[in-house]
Amino acid sequence: FLACVTPAWTSVEETICTLEFAARCKMVSITAKKNEQSKEDVIAKLMTEKDAIQVQLQLEKSKSEELCKQLQSELEKVGVTQLAADKAMNEKAEIEDRLAQLKDEANDQVRQERIRLEEIRLVEVQQVQDLETSKQQELLARLQDEQAAQQAREAEHLAQMAALKALQESWALDQKQLNERRELQHHQREAALNALGMHFMGVDSAEMSSAPKLVNLHPDPALGGSLLYYLPVGETKIGADEKRCRIKLKGLSVGDEVCAVANEDNKKLLVRPLQGGLVRVNGKMLDQSGQVLLDGDRLAIGRAYIFQVKIPLGQTGRPSATGRAESEFEAAMEEIAACVEVDPQWESGIQKAMRLVKSDFGTEEAKKLLAHAKDASEQIAVGNALLQDIPLEMRDGVTRFELSIMFDAHGFPEVLVVARKGPPMSIGGQRELSAGIWELERFVQGHLPWLKEQRSRHRAGSMPLQAKILSREDDLGTQWYRIQLVDGKDMLIIKKRYNDFKDWDRTLRNLNPGLSQLLPELPETGTFGLRAALGQKDFLDKRQEGLQQYLQVLMDNVDKT
Fold first, then answer.
1. What 3-state DSSP class applies to 108?
2. Could you write out the DSSP letters of every residue in 29-64?
3. pTM of the model as a whole
4. Would you say 453 and 467 are in contact if contact means Cβ atoms under 8 Å apart?
5. What would the pLDDT profile of 214-268 be if each residue is shown by its tens digit?
6. Is 465 helix (H, G, I), strand (E, B) or coil?
7. Of 553, 500, 523, nearest to 195 (Cα)?
8. Strand bridging mode 247-248 / 234-239
């Protein structure tokens, strides 16, 4: 044989196939053999094979007839089976139709149940709104009753003055003086409401039931809800600056202007931070773009105040978990703790430590380290905020706190808090001095309370809180006491009536039974207008002395209030 190939590279595959075929052909061997068999033998052999084949065919024919009979029998059986199968299919179709019918009935029942549950939810929401409205109406009615009672007392005093007009020296008060006194009484009533924690500036009394408001949360049930700020339509700024902010707050991490809340038609509130103020909504830090507030949201201002948002006409956000102030406060603190993140300046070091812990101890221990680091970052931020309000000499020269991770001899890490002195980096590239190092738990339980105490001492100054009655004034039969309050470097002059002292005394004794054992009883009550008109000056002097003694005991035990 002959194999033809080409040297062209484009036909290399065909060339290889041809060569492989030629190699296989070379392996074929051919042997020649002489044919010595006669024609008669071949014919005899073929005849023999023919007879054998005819016999075999006869056998196969008989077998095929037998097989046909068996197949016929099987076909008859299959026909019976087919009838049974058709009957089963019909029953199956009936069952499927019944199941479809039952499914439709079940879907109808589920749909009706959902409609019923939605109706129940709407009724519950309406009941909650009606309850809030009734509470607001009750508060408004109480305020109106107070105003009516005040007007009744004023009318009574005016009647007494008219009855004793013959016993008094005549004096002339022109219309201007009367208007000035009415204006003074109006401001005094507003100041009394502000002292009770109710701020209505910019909100008409007719709109109070529908106006949004901020209600403070506090761990003490007696103090929860004690601050109530109504938000008028427009923008309301919150911060420590008394001139620029409508809602004035003072506390840890509360700057001059913390945030602004925009009220749109008493239905929508939008809060945005100002000048990097520390603001959190439902535990999450508020970014510069702001966020829409919903009814029930919790708004944290700085590190000193947590408010619950009430929007009677707005969209409902989250329902109140228990309706109790302490539970709402705990829920707000849990939200803040869940959303705490590591300060970016320590994030790189924490990630390196986590990789080491994960490789040596596993993923769970790395997660625990991250949780401890987040908690430490938040507590360090509180400590650094406290340092800003304390003079350097009152904090042992500490300039800031830092987060540090120390590995023990077994290789397991511990989150620590390090106090630093001096500037961040001294000349020569050496780190600044360390003023102390604490485990996180010791820092929170031991050092943070000390910092808070130092901050309170600095704010109060070296002098204790003092209260002194400077004088008293008669205003249409009502005795007003001018009281000077001195708190460190701050001094405040307020005017209070005897009824204000009674309200103070009742509130203090209810909130602190232990303090009620220390406070003396208030001096004797009486009708000021009648006694003053009759010239009983000794009675008024003795009452003023008794009120001064009461204030002195209260100031001496102010830490127990």
1. helix
2. ----------HHHHHHHHHHHHHHHHHHHHHHHHHH
3. 0.46
4. no
5. 888 877 666 666 677 888 888 999 988 888 888 888 878 888 888 999 998 888 8
6. coil
7. 500
8. parallel
